[in-house]
Amino acid sequence: MSISATTVKELREQTGAGMMDCKKALTEADGDIGAAMDILRKKGLAKAAGKASREASDGLIGSYIHMGGKIGVLLEVNCETDFVAKTDDFQQLVKDISMHIAATNPAYVRREDVPSDILEKEKEIYASQVENKPPQVVEKIVQGKIEKFYADTCLVDQVFVKDPDQKQKINDLIVEKIAKLGENIVIKRFARFQLGEKIH
Description:
This protein is an alpha+beta fold. Helices cover 53% and strands 14% of the residues.
């Protein structure tokens, strides 16, 4: 089956993938753009996984001020080279994540950052809420509530506020950019300030 240049161009515009990658994906998907997008996403995830171990020591510190100066965010996102750090895609990613932090107020970057004493305390609270149920049921319920806790408090587990379908997590957004830009990307740290908030 011959794939038209128009279809390749359309897929490229939608995904940001290279021309040859788009053509291969369309050939594999028999010209179906939706299926080709899925193929490219799977390949992108595999590419991103391969880059995860590479050191990301360049990048940007971005800032975002919201509500006329009432909320401010400082965010460090790392990549491997200053070439990628200067791209519009990377800069937009930093801006989007900064805005997301202003809107959602996460407490941690990733689940590994949650102190073990806080995690244990959460588990105890959840277990006490369902203590009259069988142990295996309690364990499942507690695990489900812990996943919800991560989704509420850990930046990379949160659903991206600008995603209209409310499905794409911040981690998915990063994986997408790793696949597109060809470098490892890591959220290093952030600080969120709100006017008048108490400092602990």
